[in-house]
Design brief:
This protein has 9 helices and 9 strands. It is α/β, with parallel strands linked by helices and about 300 residues long. The strands form 2 sheets. The protein has a 6-stranded mixed sheet, with helices on both faces. Strands 7-8-9 form a 3-stranded mixed sheet. The structure holds guanosine-5'-triphosphate and magnesium ion (MG).
């Protein structure tokens, strides 16, 4: 046997990477950027992500299974509690932890507490701190911020400043992550880029548009249920119901003469056609479901239980 037979074979690495942090720091934006597809919805409002979403990146040497998580926050409703539980559970199960913060905002006490919590070594996986949104800060603000992070968590394996939105320095993060992935074969088919079904994507794309078009507390009290998802030869037909938490929110969602719902539907449909790669007919309804966000059973039905 030729001695050189295996010499060029680099071992394959595969593992899970939990993306963790306070709401709105850019976790979903980063995951979409790293895998090159929009599998997680993104809005300027905190608490956009409500359940655990996988985004899978595969090349010749590695498979990275990113786990996007809900932002870690305090909130009194059952939905808030479930979201935070989901984030911590994802952290426990991951091979590598990426703890993100928003560089464009001063380090607030809640972010500091979160970093200290992970730094206490309760979880033994390697930790990488990501300082996101560096496109929004002056260069001279970066070093002091990185030094502060280093002081708060000296045991972390790396501190990476980047812009998820612009895609700057994301390769540096990928290189760092690769070092810490276990050597093992791929877990997912290399063609897969998410664990979400088309149905789940449809619900999320509609919810994204609701979040973008509504103000104040209303988006947080909306959810989307897909009642029909039918694949025809040349199009997918989807019936989706937008749940609102109180009677007074319904007319606000619908808008004058149905304008707002129509706009939500059009934008969601265009996004869905892009990701599903075919024509979509999207029919939307609004329904009042009082306090759905505080009912454990209803949350389970919506895929928002504490293990979602
Ligand atoms: N300027 C700038 N904005 C960013 C960057 N990354 C994310 N954003 C914006 O920050 C907002 C929040 O982004 P998300 O990706 O939804 O944040 P998240 O951490 O997933 O938020 P939750 O799901 O609520 O926990 C959006 O308006 C993004 O466009 C960045 O690198 N630079
Ligand atoms: Mg998110």
């Amino acid at each position: 046997m030729a001695a050189t037979e295996n010499i060029n074979e680099t071992p394959f690495h595969c593992g899970t990477v939990a993306l963790l942090g306070r709401p709105n720091v850019g976790k979903s934006t980063l995951m979409n950027r790293l895998i090159g597809a929009k599998v997680a919805i993104v809005t300027p409002k905190p608490q956009t992500t409500r359940h655990r979403i996988l985004g899978i990146f595969t090349d010749e040497q590695r498979q990275m299974i990113f786990v996007d998580t809900p932002g870690i926050h305090k909130g009194g409703m059952q939905l808030n509690k479930n979201m935070v539980r989901v984030a911590y559970a994802a952290a426990e199960e991951a091979d590598v932890l990426v703890i993100m913060q928003d560089a464009s905002r001063p380090m607030d006490p809640a972010t500091r507490t979160l970093i200290e919590q992970f730094a206490d070594g309760r979880l033994s996986q390697p930790r990488i701190h990501v300082l996101n949104k560096v496109d929004c800060i002056a260069k001279d603000q970066l070093l002091p911020r990185l030094m502060m992070l280093q002081r708060l968590d000296p045991g972390a394996v790396a501190y990476v400043p980047l812009s998820a939105k612009k895609g700057t320095q994301t390769e540096a993060l990928m290189r760092e992550l690769t070092k810490h992935l276990p050597e093992q074969p791929a877990m997912y088919d290399p063609d897969w880029f998410t664990d979400q079904s088309q149905r789940q994507l449809a619900a999320e794309y509609v919810r994204e548009q609701v979040f973008l078009s509504m103000h104040q507390e209303i988006p947080f009290q909306t959810a989307v249920e897909i009642e029909r998802f039918e694949e025809h030869e040349d199009l997918i037909e989807i019936d989706a119901v937008i749940l609102v938490g109180s009677e007074r929110h319904k007319p606000m969602l619908i808008g004058k003469g149905g304008d707002r719902m129509k706009a939500v539907g059009t934008k969601a449909r265009l996004g869905l056609e892009q990701i599903l790669g075919c024509r979509v007919r999207l029919n939307l309804w609004a329904r009042v479901d009082e306090d759905w966000f505080d009912h454990p059973g209803k949350l389970m039905d919506l895929g928002l239980g504490s293990d979602s």
